[in-house]
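re: ur question from the group chat, yeah i did fold both. here u go
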Amino acid sequence: MQLLKATTALVSITSVFAGQCSSAESALWIGNMEFTTILTQCAVKAMGGDQATANCLKNAYEDKLGDACAACFGQTVKCGTVNCAVLCADDAGDAACLACTKEKGCDDGLDACTGFSQGPPKPLPADANNRNDGKSSVSLFSVTASFIGVAVAAVL
């Protein structure tokens, strides 16, 4: 029953907020690892809360990110926190975490809310920081998991 409530809430939110971000706003996150870092910091600071995450992100980008667009990212963080806390607590880049956020609709919810199908780069998986070749393993996958693991770890 709890899962049904969370899923229903996400569906109704994305229906109300569909296409909330402009092209100028999307330029802030598409291919931008700095956006991922700031959003992760906001999610941790907000302990996975949607409104606090959105407010933090909006403040970080001042007049470049509107309330409605920032709310999309806040809702995505909350979706992952509610639905995937256990799987994402240790590593937001973990395959199980990415699969969970996708399965629970967090990724599609963000796409619908923002109006863009490409999110910011996900953070490096925990083991990527130990690479010996000096190369980054950043890729564009699930935006939701980018922020959830760290926020959930702070909550737990």
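okk and heres the other one u asked abt
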Amino acid sequence: MKKEFSKQWKASKQPRKQRKYLANAPLHLKGKLLSSHLSPELRKKHNTRNVTLKKGDTVKVMRGRFAGKSGKITDIKTKYLKIYVDGIVTQKMDKSKVKVALRPSNLLITALNLDDKKRAAKLGTQVEAKKAEKKNSSKKIDADTKEVKKEKSADKLGEKKNE
């Protein structure tokens, strides 16, 4: 098996190939994989289902040994696709405490760190864009139904003139 990342790879049912794809992916793609679902309140507020995790976000662990615990993200290892959360530690045999690495898929974002202006703007524009999209789609539907009605009435008038 080749060790390089393949751009042609589409999908596979085999976990071995899925793990290989993730392990060999370049960092710009791994960064996109570091996203997590938003809580229902944030989902309504920002009109998006998931957001890329950033240092300072508050998350809740949904799966695993630490399920139910929450804390702020202290560190992100993009290369390994791992997240470290404040307060989630395990004890080694020599009684020292070590941070536990978590997968982003097992986390739920409960509060966003909006110190980054680009991130805040992106989330703000997503809300505005989706609202505008809904308005435009409803206007298009209204316009389309009006056009169809006009065409039908024009067809009826044409038929009456032909008779």
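fwiw on the second one: Helices lie at 15-24, 27-33, 40-46, 117-162. The CA atoms of residues 6 and 97 lie 39 Å apart. idk if thats what u expected
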